[in-house]
Amino acid sequence: MLIRYAEFVGTIKAGKQEEFYDFVETTLTPLWTKFDGAVNVSVCRELERDEGAPSIPLLLAIYRQETLPDECAPLLQEALVRGEFERGEASRITGLPDRSARRVLKALTDEGLLASVTEKGPVSLRFPVQALDTLFPRLYPEDV
Questions:
Q1: Where are the domains of the chain?
Q2: Which of 28, 29, 24, 56 is nearest to 40 (CA)?
């Protein structure tokens, strides 16, 4: 899960606050929920601020479900079958050029699905808690 934040810094004209927030709620929020991969959108209003702090009338958080490249499957399968493999084998396993294979391997290590004891050592399969949605999409209802 990736969360993208946006701070709307500035002031709203006096007397136009409700019109602004109504526009955000009825027009902008539905558009933000349609962003690619967006699974949830949170919009927060500024209720009060510290003296001298800048005005931030709106804070936006878009929760995105990142998807892994299709080319990840052979690397995950290799780790499952062999237990571990050398990073340099990624190109052979995926059939991709070296640079593309490294990009795919990085996506898997960033997600925590593959990891190694050392930075350049062989990688093996992992099942991190934060990757539950990636490994088993919609396994549990969202309210659990």
A1: 2-64, 72-135
A2: 29
Tens digits of residue pLDDT in 118-132 = 989 999 999 887 767
CA distance 140 to 127: 16
pTM (whole model) above 0.90: no
Q: Does domain 72-135 have CATH number 1.10.10?
A: yes
The first and second tokens of residue 95, run together, are 């059939």
